[in-house]
Specification:
Blueprint: E1 2-7, E2 13-18, H1 26-29, E3 36-42, E4 54-60, H2 69-82, E5 89-94, H3 96-108, E6 115-119, H4 122-128, E7 133-138, E8 141-148, E9 153-156, H5 166-180, H6 207-224, H7 239-248, H8 255-272, H9 278-290, H10 303-311, E10 322-324, E11 331-333, H11 338-345
Parallel strand pairs: 2-9, 3-4, 3-5, 5-6, 6-9
Antiparallel strand pairs: 1-2, 7-8, 10-11
Helix pairs in contact: 2-3, 3-4, 4-5, 4-6, 5-8, 7-8, 7-10, 8-9, 8-11
Length: 349
């Protein structure tokens, strides 16, 4: 078992446990004195948990459509019906949809209940469950309504990843590819790690070590900027176009698949702005390819729709805003010319 800590301002911190059997540690990380636990999960999540106290299971729908205000309302109404109080705890068991919805419901119900995440997908383990960002979607865009609400603990049981469908693993690998450019050069995978695909243990890091490395990178960024006042926005690398692809829909893309395309696009945009050279763009493409992901737009993607969606991105405070690579590393760049943004879309067709 790999044990990490997410350090937060004010001396706060919480543990993240990574490895086979981490789910068995749930009772030990439920906040002391908890009377009852509301377990939020989905019917499609084949994982049962024992928090060690009285508990009841509350199921939400599957897919991104479940990330809605109506789901949170239904969940909070169900909590109230059971008589949940501030002496109780919410436990989210599932992937990114569950951790986002359960976390937002916990942050909202009675103005805040403790939440523990049991992350059951690679995406949730390396990204969604870590750092306290919760939220739901609106028709206008992804994650436009939410709250910062740090969990009391996160459990990343790598055993459950063995049963993940191939596309669910690919979804997580898209986020893992992102971490390569945020200091995770040692993550390996594909032709970059010296053996096998990114999902293989290979001669580099084991899968558990890769998960832990991603958690460590994110924890360091969150510790420096808990509420995304600055540096934390770099964790959205590849997400501006990625979220636009998801929002405009119709392409059957999972989050990580969309982020992978967004990473290549961000590299192409950075080159168009003179921030990086051809070799660095090629490295982005090698990393994405090494994780078995596509760096090209899906057929039928409409540049007008994508431009409109990118303009509504949460980072867009001063015109079109992207997280871009550059001479000083990955950083947020605002006020980018719309013509350059649009013309660069052709580079990922």
């Amino acid at each position: 078992m790999i044990r990490l800590a997410v350090e937060l301002p004010g001396g706060r911190s919480y543990p993240v446990l990574v490895g086979p059997g981490a789910i068995g540690e749930l009772a030990s990380v439920v906040p002391p004195g908890a009377r009852r636990v509301a377990v939020v999960t989905q019917a499609s999540v084949p994982v049962e948990v024992d928090p060690g106290v009285e508990h009841r299971v509350f199921r939400i729908g599957d897919g991104e459509t479940a990330k809605s205000l109506s789901t949170v309302e239904e969940l909070c109404s169900a909590f109230a019906g059971w008589g949940l109080t501030r002496a109780d705890v919410v436990v989210g068991v599932g992937g990114g949809v569950v951790t986002d919805v359960a976390g937002f419901a916990a942050a909202s119900y009675h103005r805040g209940l403790p939440v523990v995440h049991v992350a059951t997908t690679l995406l949730a383990q390396i990204d969604a469950a870590i750092g306290g960002k919760t939220g739901v979607n609106l028709p206008e865009g992804k994650n436009l309504v939410g709250a910062f609400w740090q969990p009391a603990a996160v459990l990343c049981d790598t055993t459950v990843l063995e049963t993940l469908p191939e596309r669910e693993m690919a979804c997580g690998l898209g986020e893992m590819a992102k971490y390569h450019f945020l200091g995770g050069d040692d993550l390996g995978g594909g032709d970059l790690g010296g053996g096998g695909t990114a999902a293989d243990d290979g001669p580099g890091l084991t899968l558990e070590q890769r998960v832990a490395r991603c958690v460590q990178i994110k924890a360091e960024v969150v510790a420096a900027d808990e509420r995304e006042a600055g540096r934390r926005a770099v964790l959205n690398y590849g997400h501006t176009l990625g979220h636009a692809l998801e929002t405009t829909g119709r392409y059957d893309l999972r989050h990580g698949e969309a982020v992978a395309i967004g990473l290549v696009y961000a590299a192409e945009l950075a080159r168009s702005l003179g921030r990086i050279d051809d070799e660095r763009v090629a490295e982005h493409r090698r990393v994405v390819d090494g994780y078995g992901l596509s760096g090209s737009l899906p057929a039928g993607a409409d540049p007008d729709e994508l431009m409109a969606a990118m303009g509504r991105d949460k980072k867009a405070i001063d015109g079109l805003t992207f997280v871009l690579d550059g001479p000083d590393g990955v950083e947020v760049v605002s006020g980018i010319d719309a013509g350059v943004v649009r013309s660069t879309i052709g580079a990922v067709r």
